[in-house]
Structures are given as C-alpha cells and as structure tokens.
Specification:
There is one protein chain. By secondary structure, the chain is mainly beta. It contains one helix and 17 strands. Strands 1, 2, 3, 11, 12, 13, 15 and 16 form an eight-stranded antiparallel β-sheet that branches. A three-stranded antiparallel β-sheet has the order 4-5-6, with no helix packed on it. A hairpin with a 5-residue loop joins strand 12 and strand 13.
Amino acid sequence: MCDNSGILVTVCAQDDTAVPGSSGTANQQAASVSNSSPADVPKCTYEKADPPPPAENLAWEGHTATEGAVYRVMCDNGRVGVIFVPNGAAPVPAIDPEVLARRAVKSMKLVGPDIASPRPEGRYAVGVPMWLWVSQTPTTFGPNSATATAGAVTVSATAKVVSITWKFGDGQAVTCNGPGTVYQASAGMKSSPTCGHTFADSSAGQRDGKFALTAVATWQVNWTVTAGAVDAGQFSEVRQSQAQIPVGELQAVGN
C-alpha cells in the first residue's frame, strides 16, 4: 500500500510476513502509541571526504568530482554515512534520511502488543505461576517493513519488537526478550520457561477488583538508504497496551 503524501514524498508499506496471530485488538482493553518526537532526530555534522572516494564509489551517486564533492555525515547517535553535494550547495541534505526512516515507520501503523495471556476475561490465583505471551502480527510484533522517498533519496526501514516489559500493577515488572511461550495443559503448575509472573496478593483491593496490567514493547528499527546517499542507522520506538486482570485467593474446600 502506498500513500502519496505530497509531490516530493512517497511512503510505501507492505506487511508480507506470514506470522499467525490475531488482529491485535481482541484481548486488549486499551492501547496507546508513543511516537518519537522531533527531539529524537539526531544532530549531524558534515565533513568533506579528503581524499575523496574512488570515482566508481556509490557515494558519488553517478556524479563526478567536477560536479561536486562527497561529504561524510557524522551524527550524535553514532550514525555515519556519506552524501554527494553539488558545487555551490550547502553540505546538508534537504531531508535527513533518518527523518524519512521515521516517516516510513509511521506508515507501518505499529500498535501495542496483542496480549494473548493473561486474558482480561480470565481469572487468576495468588501463588499460581502466570504465563505471559503475545500474538505475533506485523503491526503488533513485527517484522514490518516500509519505504519512504523524498526527491532522489529512498529509505527502507524494518521494525521488530526486541523486548516487552510487563508491569503488573502490583509494584512488580519483568522484561522478556521475546513473545513468550504459549501455555500447554501438560505444563501443569510449572512456571513459564521464557516469560511469567506470580502474584503474591489478590486484586480485591484494587479499582474494580483488578490489577492494571501494562505491556510495553520496544521496537528496534533498522534502516538503509536504497537510493541516493549511502547511509544507514538504527533507532527505537515504543508502543504499549493495557488490560485489567482479576487475581483471587485459592479457596480450600473441606470434607
């Protein structure tokens, strides 16, 4: 799907990852999106390459030394690249490739984790291990890819969740580096091998009798310039989802 947002800028997104999962809305009571602010865009300096790269180097973008010069781009986030600057022009691109990468990510419409467990409609018990996992779709877990173009520059970006921090509303939190493991009845009362939590108290004293669960996903975005300047970089995005989880005490039944 492509969205032509203007004469000079084209953004294209494609979700072609065949990963099973739900739509990302069924088990989430609320979701919010946290986008990067303009302040997150790095500050860059430009230094003329001396000596210049060989004539066949892609940094020349098809030009020659008589038409301009190649500059190294050094940014405060560690990114390093090169651009061709025509004679008489300032060594600053009309649009920073990372700005294009963030525009590509925006077109992906990333959302918070699709919480598969714990389910808001379920009931959970104090002292019983809770298994945590999410459904994986391109918009809720990734990978998700998109491109953005401005003038002669095209940037390709790929985003994927690298960790999820679960906050349980009981003062505890855990960070898991994957989607979690789906519970199987054969596991019985065992703890999850990858991502889980055990409540020490019931949610009876909480608002509506439930703990407020928040799952915060950190997306890693890798981007490269596929047309135009030679450049690449990486940044993070954060999305989160919430759910209300009831936790009760186990009741012993006497004879």
